[in-house]
Amino acid sequence: METAFTPFAGLIGGALIGLAAVAFMGLLGRIAGISGIVAGLLAPPSSDTLWRGAFVIGLIGGAAIVRAVGWGQVPMITAAWPVLMIGGLLVGIGTRIGGGCTSGHGVCGMARLSVRSIVATLVFIIVAMAVVYVRRHLLGGV
Amino acid sequence: MKYVTTVASALVVGLLFGAGLAVSGMTNPAKILSFLDIAAIAVGDWDGTLLFVMGGALAVTFVGYRYVLSLPHPVLDSLFHLPTARAIDLRLIFGAAIFGIGWGLVGYCPGPAIAALAWPTAEPALFVAAMLVGFWIGGKALR
Question: Which residue in chain B has the smallest CA separation from A92?
């Protein structure tokens, strides 16, 4: 199940993500970590609730605009529903316990040269690579 | 007024972030799984796009943070809310590893999964619903 290597689109999209991270720090003074921003919505309503909600609406809206223009990629998901649910659950639990995800640790934390974030990023990438290797090449699944 | 500006700013930053995820193709988990499949490097059908996404994002953030964090305070707040934790502890490693398992199983991390809700398919919604439950459980586990 190979996908096309699209380095140019990757760089442009990555630069937009970086721009968002810098703007978020410059304006609100916060790390643009998606897991933290979204998990904060589960807390009792506070003065933070509205901007968190606005960010999430923007996140979906931004992708919707790109999709409308015809640039986005249709999500190709092969995982069965139980796998999707277990995966979602683990991503949710792990990012809370580990204090961040690909955006918070991988982009914002690494850009601050945080050792914690560099270690966390290495761990989740290596573990994810191991999971894919086991599933695709040892168990022969997708 | 500042409060309204804060909410509006978050919306605009969210738009930028979501657009970046969609433009880079990260809303398609098949691309992430192709990147994570290191055995594919040997046979030549590896998709290294994620490296360019991370590279582009890191380069801009690294340079931008240099400037922004040199300011006395952010535009809309009196202080920067920066993480204070420094310890490389078991919780960090364990949490990152659990996240890695979920990421490797499906190919979605939180941002792309939520941005993918822009497509009218059931799978991202199911993943995000489970992830929200996970956030809640993980939040409980921290206390």
Answer: B134
